[in-house]
């Protein structure tokens, strides 16, 4: 083989190796991106559930405080009803 042919052959091998390496890197990056995107989507779903639960709990606590305040402002003839409502609200908040 002539020196020129060897050089050309060597440069072609280097080029092919570089292309192969770039292709592998691109595939790994795409896989990494896909996995992280899926993970962030799952986290978003979890945060939505948590946010909804916290909003429900806050609303129940406001209602409970309002009923509690109104029960202390007027004569207490419905203590048993209010306590059962409060216990139901707390049970619901626990779930």
If you had to describe this structure to a student in words, what would you say it looks like?
The protein is an all-alpha fold. The protein has one domain. It is built from two helices and no strands. The mean pLDDT is about 85.
Compact overview of the structure:
The chain has 95 residues and is mainly α.
Write the layout of secondary structure elements.
Layout: H1 3-73, H2 79-94
Helix pairs in contact: 1-2
How many domain units?
Answer: 1
Amount of helix:
over 70%
Mean pLDDT over the full residue set: 86
The share of residues in extended strands comes to under 5%
Rg over C-alpha atoms, rounded to the nearest angstrom:
34 Å
Instruction: State the helix count.
Output: 2
Main sheet: strands, sense, barrel: none
Residue windows where pLDDT falls under 50 for at least 5 positions? none
Number of strands: 0
Briefly note the structural class of the backbone.
mainly alpha
**Order of secondary-structure elements:** HH
Give the overall form: rod-shaped
Distance between the termini: 80 Å
